[in-house]
Amino acid sequence: MPLPFGLKLKRTRRYTVSSKSCLVTRIQLLNGEYVEFTLSVESTGQECLEAVAQRLELREITYFSLWYCNKQNQQRWIDLEKPLKKQLDKYGLEPTVYFGVVFYVSSVTQLQQEITRYQFYLQLKKDVLEGKIPCSVEQAIHLASLAVQADLGDFNRYESQEFLQKIVLFPMPWIQDERVVEEATQKVTMLYQKYRGLSAPEAELLYMQEVEKMEGYGEESVQAKDAQSTDVIIGSCLDGIFVKHKNGKAPLMFQWNDINNMTHNKSFFALELANKEDTIQFQTEDMETSKYVCRMWLARHKFYKINNSRLPEVHSLSFFSSLSKPLSSLCSDRKLLITLQRNDMTACPGHISQRIKKKKKI
């Protein structure tokens, strides 16, 4: 049987792409690992996303997407309806694509699959460590202790401060100050004891529920100027579109339900409000930015208006109760007990291997 896309199978069992109609796409997952897929040059972003979801055994694909760094080294979400290669060739700084959460939720208990919550946990931890979600010293120590329990579990050898100092526990700006890191690590070592006995899903859930309350959760923003040519930051979040002024003026919030439409023209981005005839206009860095902002925030506008009324809220106590029902367990190198929800989660080899691999680093 001939192989697709003109691929030739050698004795080494490695495929060599012999057709110019192929694209080998390298994608970084949220656990830091890379996967590669061979696609057609005409394959859309959606086809690539579905390949990643299949690899991860992920069914709740709606919340996720793929992004790249543009030539200005800014994160940009891929247009899933268009060919991936054309977007990377035209706008991308490098050919690497990244998998991540594009639509955040008001409560992670709304997510049905345990693997979905695990991917959310990885995303939120990444957001915290990269400084996208700012936190106080106390918050960072609390989150780090939960991350240690979630990723390393109950082991006496992890109580060593020297061991914890080798792991990235705190936001990147802190790394420059060794004194702050040392003091915070000492506190993590003590606070970590509080969470002994928690399973990985339970510790991950506590971590995410803390981050949900923090400013910056689920936000994406760009630099802009308002109608008075004042420098502002405009962004989208779970509630709508916000405007933050750099001069100390109180921020503005336009709720999703109050927004009728969003448009762009050249470098200008405009909000059309439901109860006002006038539009609120902002000038972005360039035409590509205004076009990107309009596309992404229209997608979020549609998503949040539809899903905020549909997603069920699960009571936290009943959710923890479901997590405590042991469906299966594995002994990895740190003897972690994996517990899964009986009704809406299914253990699968791909999912299990993903959870084992992530224990190697935080």
TrEMBL record:
PROSITE patterns: FERM_1, FERM_2, FERM_3. Residues 23-308 form the FERM domain. Gene3D superfamilies: 1.20.80.10, Phosphatidylinositol 3-kinase Catalytic Subunit, Chain A, domain 1 (3.10.20.90), Pleckstrin-homology domain (PH domain)/Phosphotyrosine-binding domain (PTB) (2.30.29.30). One of its GO terms (molecular function) is protein tyrosine phosphatase activity. It is found in: Cytoplasm, Cytoskeleton. Pfam families: FERM_C, FERM_M, FERM_N. Keywords: Cytoplasm, Cytoskeleton, Hydrolase, Phosphoprotein, Protein phosphatase. Its main location: cytoplasm. This is protein-tyrosine-phosphatase. It comes from Cyprinus carpio carpio.
